[in-house]
Amino acid sequence: MPAFRLALFCAAVALAAPCGAQTTYRWIDKSGQTVYSDQPPPAEARAVETKEGRGRDNERPLPYATRQAAEKYPVTLYTAANCTDACASARALLNGRGVPFAEKMINNPEEAAEIGKQMGNESFIPGLKVGSQNFPGFEAGSWNNLLDLAGYPKTAPYGSKSSGAFPQ
Questions:
Q1: Which has the closest alpha carbon to 155: 26, 63, 75?
Q2: What's the CA gap between 74 and 128, in Å, rounded?
């Protein structure tokens, strides 16, 4: 029996390890043992199941709280080409919390005037929109408050990747 537990443990560890887009097979062999393998099962195998692994480039799914907040209150970051330090701080805040966001770069004065009206402030770069709430300019405390009210976690989960068009 200890050999079976060891084999089961090794199979679990092998399946949990990151691998590149690999197919895993599960079947019951002729002696009634459940087998996990990356090799296709023999012809006499019963109850064959296959599972496609995700590749290394695939992103991890978002945590439940983040998915819920993002569905109800999507986040948009407004930036401009001439915005450097404040926009970098804004991206860092959002990425540090693991917030998925779209980044809209303002390219001309007409766009700036239109979004400035929505923001209620002509000098709004960087600007943040969380759901239907807007905040012109970067102020970490106010941005964190908006994100807290929307239900976004306070920190990004371990191993999360940057979001937005221009990650640091």
A1: 63
A2: 11
In the block, which residue shows the tokens 């992103």?
59
Q: In angstroms, rounded to a whole number, what is the distance separating the alpha carbons of residues 155 and 168?
A: 17
Residue spans of alpha helices (H) in 35-160: 64-72, 85-97, 109-119, 140-150
Cα 130 to the center of its chain, rounded Å: 17
Handedness of CA 37, 38, 43, 46 (dihedral sign): positive
Mean of the per-residue pLDDT values of the chain: 78
For the chain, what are the domain ranges? 23-54, 64-150
Structure tokens at 70: 């993002």
pLDDT digits (tens, 9 = 90+) for 90-122: 999 999 999 999 998 888 888 888 888 887 776
In order of 52, 107, 164, the CA distances from 141 in angstroms are 43, 27, 21
pTM of the entire predicted model: 0.60
- Pick from 146, 26, 153: which is nearest to 100 by CA? 153
CATH: 3.40.30.10, 3.30.559.70, 3.40.630.40, 3.40.50.10160. Which one for 64-150? 3.40.30.10
φ/ψ of 101, rounded to 5, equals: -145, 155
Helices 85-97 and 140-150, axial angle in degrees (round to 10): 30
